Structures are given as structure tokens and as C-alpha cells.
Amino acid sequence: MTEITQKTWGGRAATFALAAAFATTGGWVSAQEVKPVSPDLTPKLRELLRKEMLSVEDASHQIMSYLIAGDDENVAKLAQQIHDSFILQQSMTPEDKQDLMAAVPEEFVTRDRAFHALSAELAEAAREGDRPAQHQKFGEMIQACSACHALYATDRFTQLAE
Question: What are 10-27's pLDDT values in tens digits?
């Protein structure tokens, strides 16, 4: 096999592994009788949440590329950045925290903590060079994003409400 063909098959194998990891994590979660949280947030909290989500999305796109390339070092770096991001936590006053807890259900906070824990697990798997675990954890992270959006962001992601 030529080097280009090997790289192409390697990239496809990584993509298939990520798809399989996503499929085994439970797939999509249907929206329950839960309402979007954004309308209940203060403008400051809404903006902080938006910034954090964009940061996570950008890092996730980069992680996907690094997973496909087998770049464990950069996967670890970005996954750790996601874990440590907590823009909301870092930028909130005590009053903001009160406003947040009044606006979101406890399950939202639980899901957010679990997501950040998954990103730490992905970072650890990358530091250990465990690529199957990296693919599994990344798939779980993507599933966690989709499940949370299906429950709490259907105003922004209307197709997940279906």
C-alpha cells in the first residue's frame, strides 16, 4: 500500500471508530418535557454560556482532526482546555451564580459537570496514547452535547426537538 493510501485508510478507520463510539453511547436523547434554559438566563449569563459553547465547539472540531491524525499531544491539550474552560464558573459573581441556579434545573448542572469530566478522561487517554479510549471518550462527549441540546437548547437547535 502506498503511504497516501495508508493515511486515507487510517483516517477512515478513525472516523468509523468515532462513529461506532457515538453509536454505542446511546445515540440521541429525545426531548422530554424540559424547556430551553436560555430564555431564563440573564443577558450576561446567556453571553457567557454562548462563549463557552463556541469555545467547546471549536476545540471539538480541532480534536476530531487531531484524532484522525493520531496527534495524541494536541488531543490531550485541547481536551484539557475543554475541561478547564468553565467560562461560566470563572466569570460569574456570587449574584450570577444565584441567577444561574435559579434559571437552570439541577440536571443541567449535573450534565455539564459530567461533560467536563469526560473531557478530562479524554485528555488522560490521549496522554496515555490510548487511541481506542480517545475515540470512545470523544464519542461520549459528542453524545453528551447532543443530549443536553435536545433537552435544554431546543430553541437554538430546533431539529433536536423533533
Answer: 444 444 444 444 333 344
Question: What is the mean pLDDT of the segment spanning 143-148?
Answer: 96
pTM given for the model: 0.77
Got the DSSP string for 32-93?
-S---SGGGS-HHHHHHHHHHHHHHHHHHHHHHHHHHHT-HHHHHHHHHHHHHH-HHHHH--
Higher pLDDT pick, 10 / 154: 154
Dist. CA 38–CA 50, nearest whole Å = 9
The span from the CA of 71 to the CA of 86, in Å, is 25
Find out whether 100 and 112 touch, Cβ atoms under 8 Å: no
Enumerate residues 6+ apart whose C-beta is below 8 A from 105. Answer: 34, 37
